[in-house]
Amino acid sequence: MAGQPAPSPRHRLEQIGSALVTQRDGRIDLDRAAVSLDRQALPADTEVVLLSLRIHLAQLQAEAVRKQLPGDIVTRFAAYETVLTEDVPLLPLLEGPMTFLRGGVEDEYVTSALDSGFVAGWRHLCDLHDRLALRLGPDGFSGAETLTLRSEIAPAEIRCISQDAARAFDNLSVSDALRDTMSHLCDTIKRQTDLLADLRDRTPKRPSLLACSLKITGAIILGTLTCAASVAAIAQTASGAALLAALEPLAQKLLLLFA
Question: Per the confidence metrics, is the pTM higher than 0.85?
Fold first, then answer.
């Protein structure tokens, strides 16, 4: 209705968070269906690129096991696979584990012990990821489109908030899936803040991806606060109380990042 003020950032993120976060078996959990994009809104060839990426990743994983590659490499492929199994995954969640994969294939110390064919396949995985990223786009949440970051943002401040959020979700009242999701978001946010041109230019090179990552982080934090506070079996435990105490100050800090 005309004349009514726009919903506050907190209200909008709480609405999104209520769809993302749920309670299952006495723990705060992620609603897996809510972290997938709508296929109908994506370019026609998205499914082909996504299928190619999944097939190629499976081939690399099988070869990594067959060659008995170091556990760190196998674990990084597995972390990426976990997010990739979503129907149509959100880009900010894929970018976190991809940061480690891209860093590994660019490290000569790591690749010098591998045959050139496997390294080429690993690089192709990164290329396929980039092709998929162009089709997914950074944002996927209805109702959050008008949320924008402040024109001046401090990379260190953003990284600190995301790292504190990841630590807060390392909690017995939180499911493994939700804890891993927050860890992936933290990695994505760190990568995006590292890509700032320099300390004098506070404009992210991929502002929409950074903004979307922060929106998801904020939505999950606010959704968790609402869910945990409403379930006595969680709120009245020591771990639940610690989670609530840690998240409210983080929510306040994160909301200040939005204009």
Answer: no
